[in-house]
Amino acid sequence: MPKNQTPVYYSDYLRLDKLLGAQQPHSSRYGDEAHDEMLFIIVHQVYELWFKQVLHELRSIYREFNQPKLDDKALYLVAHRLRRILTIQDLMNDQVGVIETMTPQEFLEFRDILVPASGFQSVQFKEMEIILGLTRGKRIAFDQQSFFNRLNAEDRAYLEELEQQPSLFDRVDDWLARMPFLQFEDFSFWEVYQQAVQKSLDQDEKIIRENATDDEQLQAELQGLQANRDNFAALFDNERYIELQKDDRVRLSQRAMLSALFITQYREEPAFNLAWQVITSLAEMDEKLTIWRYKHSMMVQRMLGTKIGTGGSSGHDYLRRTTEQNRVFKDFFAMSTYLLPKSTLPDLPASVRQALGFYFRD
Ligand code: HEM
To answer: Which residues are recorded as binding substrate (predicted)?
Structure first.
């Protein structure tokens, strides 16, 4: 690494003049400064800085997925950067407690002068959502409107352009669907897994029939088991799977879902280990973002009760609904429906195990 030519001074390097000069409460324009407005500004700014770092990581992860091939080195980098995002998300989730040290009454001292600014206009937050794969049709609207109506022309054009690009979700789907081992020589994961599922469900039925104490209980349990059989049948049947996608019950392509399942079930196989870490981290990222949404929505209820937001949404009610609806990697959670216990998993043929392992030569 080259040595620096000129001495560096701490505050110049960090541009602290700009950073620390950027907290300018508006309440002082209208009378006495509201003490808590400084906290409100700093907490938002700190979030925006972390959003910036998360976007920096997400864009680099996206670039890797955007390559025609994702080799092990690239996958390692992706896993490493995803872990960094998860650590930042923990911090962001904990940070909700800092803004909660402000009481609702203290907030009311300056709330009205913020209108119509709103979190809806956090371009970086919306950019994170869009890069991840929260498309227009998937996110919930507020009162039949879109947050796009709250943006200025420049921000709106920027995010609309971004929406036209394939998302990280799309790229992850492509990557999983490309996974070569679903069909390997004469081994078909689909067939082998289907037989194992059949065996496991038949075993469940036997246990239900042997242990039922009365007919009503028996019928109820058999009905539950049939629902399970239907779920599995849809996984293996192309047409039924497409129906699930149309009903918005699943978003991943069928091939990607099966690959994710294969990787998750056999994650101890060396070639699957990193891929499994990536899948798990994407699920965790979705979970942590949902936790942030939930904490933010609870904080908003505490601050505003049932008052509407400065951006015109129903406030707490809208935000609470985003925790249910605005999810991207939900399929990695739904996948558990299809998992089998390890003890009933079919053994992989030697040729597949050989291909999935790492070997050192003497
Ligand atoms: C007193 C504190 C806060 C209150 C009362 C509040 C209130 C609200 C409300 C009511 C909304 C819904 C949109 C609207 O109608 O305006 C919203 C959205 C949002 N807020 Fe906050 N907020 C607070 C703090 C924060 C903080 C610290 C952040 C961090 C950046 C933040 C980020 C956001 C984002 C990103 C949205 C858009 C969420 C989405 O559309 O899913 N808010 N906020």
So the answer is: 40-44, 111, 310
